[in-house]
Amino acid sequence: MKLDSKAMRHLTSEDWRVLTAVEMGSKNHEVVPTPLIEKIARLRGGSSGVHKSIATLAKVGLVARVKEARYDGYRLTYGGLDYLALHTHASRRDVYSVGTRIGVGKESDIVVVADHDGTQKVLKIHRLGRISFRTVKANRDYLKNRASGSWMYLSRLAAMKEFAFMKALREEGFPVPEPLAQSRHTIVMTLIDALPLRQISSVPDPASLYADLIGLILRLAKHGLIHGDFNEFNILIKEEPVSDAAGDEVKDEVSRVNLTPIVIDFPQMVSMDHPNAEMYFDRDVNCVKRFFERRFHFVSTQPGPFFDDAKKLVGKNGSKRLDAALEASGFTKKMAKDLDAALREQVAKDVPDEKDVDSSEDEDVDDDDETYISQASDAEQSENGPAQPSEDEPIAVIQPGSEQSPGHASRSSDPAAREMERLSLGNT
């Protein structure tokens, strides 16, 4: 679904209390009884005030009435959860305005936002349950008594896990976006001016970039982690000019641009001690190998790396075990078990293949394939989501000596900035 924040400025404090009451009631009820909403909200206007707010919220799609329900009640929609998260971010001054959607997929939406200073950021909205879990709903063993709120529960867990891992990885110097805030099923992070690897048709030195990516896989293993979805959709390539010792930009045609990989999307990250760790590790390595052979016609002369060798690197030279940092953040073993069980079936069959890419919103291969791209084609996307390039038509060619890759816009000319809706989220 598309995030539309226009109605936020018109909601009253009573409306927010009622919306929060529906969220609280959703923990134990798929359809929250109206009397329970009244009891939790405790409005001065009593029942009439609650019904007035419910009508307002239902009109803009934040709550919905379920047809043929056994009692009078309402359920919280994804739009309602989006508004509650945005309201929290606005109250913390992390988000002031909402711009265009620049990425869409099965499990998340990516939106450009800005703070009170006008600094652009990225809002990632997890939407587990929209597509991936339609086939899992019949098997709810992993949710036990939480089946009624599964989509909210799982989306919140995915956001909590990703935020915790991004924070831990960032502190250890990994090339990941900086996580700034997390509320419910959303994460606010820095905007990275980069292209996803899958949109790049050629690079000056494939061997060097390949070595950097394999090095990242081994570096993660050294800290006890496996990405679990390390592929061209979740790797961004940032172009940085090379400078000499004096700080002057190098003019050599071969080495003017340094390609820095940025890793994104961490809800499926697992420990090196995971029962299926070897399968996840080998899949990450093979995804990189297959892509480089298919796209850049590059095949490494060295075999591996192999899981058994990577296992020996865990904790080496005093490396901090980041898999333990997740539980320390408040993400309990029970939460990890629930999320892992939900992701297991989908992850097993989501080995990316560019031929599977579809331009429709519901069938997009990955949620982050266009997460941090600031370019015209993203800002001018249709209502059905961003158009996807085919295998035969990758967007960018990175060549030494070029100032920028085709279609790679600078921050100042970002169409998303020009189209930013200055919606004051704090005036509620």
Automatic annotation (TrEMBL):
Biased composition (Acidic residues): 359-371
Reaction(s) catalysed by this chain's protein: L-threonyl-[protein] + ATP = O-phospho-L-threonyl-[protein] + ADP + H(+); L-seryl-[protein] + ATP = O-phospho-L-seryl-[protein] + ADP + H(+)
Domain RIO kinase: residue ranges: 67-315
Pfam families (alphabetical): RIO1, Rio2_N
Composition-biased stretches (Basic and acidic residues): 347-358
Entry keyword annotation includes Kinase: yes
InterPro entries: Kinase-like_dom_sf, Rio2, RIO2_wHTH_N, RIO_dom, RIO_kinase, RIO_kinase_CS, WH-like_DNA-bd_sf, WH_DNA-bd_sf
EC nos: 2.7.11.1
Superkingdom classification of source: Eukaryota
Residue segments, region Disordered: 347-428
Segments of skewed composition (Polar residues): 372-387, 401-413
Keyword NAD: no
PANTHER family in the cross-refs: SER/THR-PROTEIN KINASE RIO2, SERINE_THREONINE-PROTEIN KINASE RIO2
Protein name as annotated: non-specific serine/threonine protein kinase
Native source organism of the sequence: Phialemonium thermophilum
